[in-house]
Design a protein that fits this description.
heterodimer, A: about 325 residues, mainly alpha, 12 helices, about 75% helix, B: about 290 residues, 11 helices
Chain lengths: ~325, ~290
């Protein structure tokens, strides 16, 4: 913890003139460098926003018929926003319960000596580059998921989400959501693990002493304590899922329309994947359109991440664990 | 079996939680198996010593992409490490709870959430303004990766500087050592293991990034060692294009895509392992 390390005037201290810290030239240079780097980060971030806005303006100002689809920028970007949110929400729905269970396993079920190693193994999931998940998803996972998609169509087809016809190559929204879920699982797990470990030991022991089983102890002491941690972890995961590019670009079969049908070949694209797919061949206004859609993505993730950080920080202040 | 309802629920949850963990491991095993079994097809000497210049169909390799990845990532590290380190020093040693420090902390958090493709677009937008439309160069990729790397370095370094005991600083001050020398000679050496492992992890994180390099650097078939002029090939982008736009026949292209992915995964895993080794080997002995 960083407390104030500069000399403090104390009751018995000599007059203030002599306690004034001597600032050496070296100090001034070094602190200036450090401060400058911090300011540079702010400038870079302002630059990110400014350059993206500058390059987006031509797209927003362009006449509607110059933009692909002919309906203007909003019409172009809306299905992509929808697809981005849909894929991320599916990922979140799959990953959150799984992550909480994994975090519980590591903190409360696994043998003590193994716990750290198991946590490391889960962290390895986060180390795998996204292009590898993309290749794996397109080559192995999507094919393997086809029987499951067919089963959904057959048995749950009356729900509009699974209306089908099921994609025979597994290039469907549900499959992409599952791959994204795997990619964000380590993030949610890490945050949940952190807060579960901070649960006051006394609460846990008190619950056990009153005769609670392990599950009852977790339900009464650990989960309520960790709720805000789970929520913010899930939102960090959501932020990551929204921006994930390569896996979506490689797996999803994109046709553009807005549909809630999760298992068919006709899917809305996502902003990030659309940029990756279109950018290498784009020129002129098309580039500006793609950058503008990137700006939209930036704003969405910014909002989600800020909210997540707000929840984490608010919790930190009231945490009795430290 | 005779047991109470509560006991039964407890057992059920134990089973659910344990199987959730095993379920989470399945993809990891499957990913590694798929990449290794497909990637080994082209793990030969030619693959590592030749570029794709003039290669149609079989043969060719990733020599140019490995060099490109190393150059672009090294440049990104060269930009990110000093900025990240100094910022963390400012936050922990000088900034305290000043307004500037708090806003830097907030915006570093924001930066960690920037989608990688947006970082790539930022570099594109920047270099479009500087060099005109259509500019693709390795350095733009380094800039994009720096945007992703700086916040990781700041976070890791900040954590490490915070756990340096205050007594060490005070002892140095008491001996009349100026603050900047205290930081350079006492605080940073004490936490250097943690910082080094954090930096290594940051490199591992960005070396596998595809999307920013795809938009900012593009890809090329030949060796280009100059990051300030023209397109460069990188492993992830090479792998992506080989898989997404294969030539005829498809097989050699797919094999190269998998082999490049395997090389990438090996690099990332080695860096991760290295980070742990550094942290363990140089950790300050507390007891």
């Amino acid at each position: 913890m960083s407390t104030d390390t500069s000399p403090r005037p104390q009751a018995a201290a000599p007059p203030a003139t002599t306690t004034k810290p001597v600032v050496q030239p070296g100090d001034r240079v070094f602190s200036g460098l450090a401060k400058g780097s911090g300011i540079l980060i702010l400038v870079v971030l302002a630059g990110v926003a400014a350059f993206l806005i500058a390059q987006s303006l031509p797209a927003i100002a362009a006449p509607a018929d110059e933009i692909q689809g002919g309906g203007g920028f909003v019409v172009y970007v809306w299905p992509l926003v929808f697809g981005t949110l849909l894929a991320a929400v599916i990922a979140l729905v799959i990953a959150t319960p799984l992550s909480v269970a994994v975090a519980l396993f590591i903190t409360h079920y696994a043998p003590r000596r193994l716990a750290a190693a198991l946590g490391y193994v889960i962290d390895l999931l986060a180390a795998v580059p996204s292009i590898v998940y993309g290749l794996w998803g397109a080559y192995t996972f999507s094919i393997a998921s086809v029987p499951f998609l067919l089963w959904l169509e057959e048995n749950l087809g009356w729900i509009p989400l699974f209306a089908g016809p099921a994609s025979n190559a597994g290039r469907a929204m549900l499959v992409v959501g599952a791959v994204l879920a795997i990619m964000i699982l380590p993030i949610i797990t890490a945050v949940a693990r952190e807060v579960f470990l901070q649960t006051p030991k006394l609460h846990e022991e008190a619950a056990l002493a009153l005769g609670a089983t392990r599950w009852e102890m977790i339900r009464m002491a650990v989960l309520p304590f960790g709720r805000s941690g789970i929520i913010s972890g899930a939102m960090l995961g959501l932020g990551r899922a929204l921006g994930e590019t390569m896996a979506v670009a490689l797996i999803l079969s994109i046709s553009g329309g807005v549909t809630f049908n999760l298992i068919s070949n006709g899917n809305p694209g996502t902003i990030a994947a659309n940029i990756a797919l279109q950018f290498p061949e784009a020129s002129g206004v098309a580039v500006n359109v793609l950058i503008a859609s990137g700006l939209v993505l930036f704003l969405i993730t910014l909002a989600i991440n800020s909210l997540a950080r707000y929840i984490i920080n608010r919790r930190r202040e009231f945490s009795g664990a430290n | 079996m005779v047991e109470g309802r509560r006991k039964a629920t407890d057992r059920l949850v134990t089973t659910v939680v344990t199987s959730a963990f095993l379920l989470a491991l399945l993809p990891l095993v499957s990913v590694l198996w798929t990449v290794i079994s497909n990637g080994l097809t082209r793990f030969d000497a030619e693959f590592f010593t030749s570029s794709m210049r003039g290669v149609v169909g079989e043969g060719g390799g990733v020599y140019h992409a490995i060099l490109g990845t190393l150059i672009i990532t090294a440049l990104a590290a060269l930009i990110s490490i000093p900025i990240g380190l100094l910022t963390a020093v400012y936050l922990v040693e000088y900034g305290k709870n000043s307004r500037l420090a708090r806003s830097i902390t907030f915006f570093v958090d924001v930066m960690t959430g920037i989608p990688s493709i947006v970082a790539g677009l930022f570099a594109v937008a920047l270099f479009t303004l500087l060099l005109g439309p259509g500019a693709r160069l390795g350095f733009a990729g380094s800039v994009a990766l720096s945007v992703l790397m700086i916040p990781i370095v700041v976070r890791a370094t900040e954590e490490m500087l915070k756990i340096v005991p205050n007594e060490l600083r005070e002892a140095a001050f008491a001996l009349g050592v100026p603050k900047w020398r205290t930081i350079l000679k006492v605080v940073i050496p004490t936490s250097v293991a943690g910082i080094a492992s954090g930096v290594t992890l940051a490199i591992a994180r960005v070396i596998g990034e595809t999307a920013p390099l795809l938009v900012a650097v593009g890809v090329t078939t030949g060796v280009n060692l100059n990051p300030f002029d023209g397109r460069m090939a990188t492993l992830p982008v090479f792998s992506y294009f080989s898989y997404a736009t294969p030539g005829v026949p498809r097989e050699p292209y797919l094999d190269r895509a998998w082999a490049a992915a395997l090389v990438l995964i090996i690099i990332v895993m080695v860096l991760n392992l290295l980070a742990r080794l550094i942290a363990r080997a140089f950790a300050p002995k507390t007891r």
